[in-house]
Amino acid sequence: MLLEVAGLDLRYGATHAVKGVSLTVGEGEIVTVLGANGAGKSSLLKAIAGAEKPTGGTIQFNGRDITGRGASQRVRDGLVLVPEGRQIFVSLSVEENLLMGAYTRSGAEVARDAEEIFDRFPNLEARRHAPASVLSGGEQQMLAVGRALLARPKLMMLDEPSLGLSPIVVDQLFDLIAELNAQGLSILLVEQNTQMALEVASRGYVLELGALRAEGTAEELAADASLVEAYLGNAEDAA
Ligand SMILES: Nc1ncnc2c1ncn2[C@@H]1O[C@H](COP(=O)(O)OP(=O)(O)OP(=O)(O)O)[C@@H](O)[C@H]1O
């Protein structure tokens, strides 16, 4: 397994946001974490990324225990988070935003990788010197993914990437996720768009009030009508 989270616990004062969650992501897999608003999905990803300190449990990545490692060290290890809301700096240029993803790297390879990312996203290339504020929501999401790619990740964690995007752009985003995965990137995807997430993922976990409610293959979860209705809503509700 590339990522092995065991008994992860996270409290914010009196709020018990993540309650003993265990999950795995294998090399080359897309795994999804589903759940309603406030289920603890973002908190889980932040703890795995090192942005929040867990109050219990362990995180193994690529064969080593990273529970005590700092956030930038985890990026160096190949574990990268594309945060909820994209977190683009709108007053900086598209290129400056992109290059921020390489903050743990140096050397000529960074510039080469940036050109590769611009080749992949012509809309970003066309506006590389413009402030990121000129980008649409979908383009900003692509920029956030491009920025994460610039860290050369082994595992990319995406926190609700489809939020606020139009159906056509959501389709493009999920195509991109599938394409990156086909090129070898492992992905942990937090989504409220249950239907699309279960189409692209091989396995999934369902969080409810911080605890794991269900886990299984994407087919098993999609076939569990009571689960989908009670805990996940459908794509239309989430949009
Ligand atoms: N920094 C924080 N301080 C205190 N409580 C927090 C903090 N961040 C999240 N919480 C609480 O922890 C719980 C889980 O929130 P979290 O954002 O992880 O859920 P989520 O499933 O990602 O929801 P959403 O889809 O709304 O982002 C919620 O009750 C939330 O109010």
From TrEMBL:
A GO biological-process term: L-amino acid transport
Superkingdom per UniProt: Bacteria
Domain ABC transporter: 3-234
Record-linked Pfam families: ABC_tran
Signal peptide range in chain numbering: none
Annotated keywords: Amino-acid transport, ATP-binding, Nucleotide-binding, Transport
A GO term, aspect molecular function: ATP hydrolysis activity
InterPro entries: AAA+_ATPase, ABC_transporter-like_ATP-bd, ABC_transporter-like_CS, BCAA_Transport_ATP-bd_LivF, P-loop_NTPase
Keyword Nucleotide-binding: yes
Family (UniProt): Belongs to the ABC transporter superfamily.
Name the UniProt record assigns to this protein: ABC transporter ATP-binding protein
Lineage: Bacteria, Pseudomonadati, Pseudomonadota, Alphaproteobacteria, Rhodobacterales
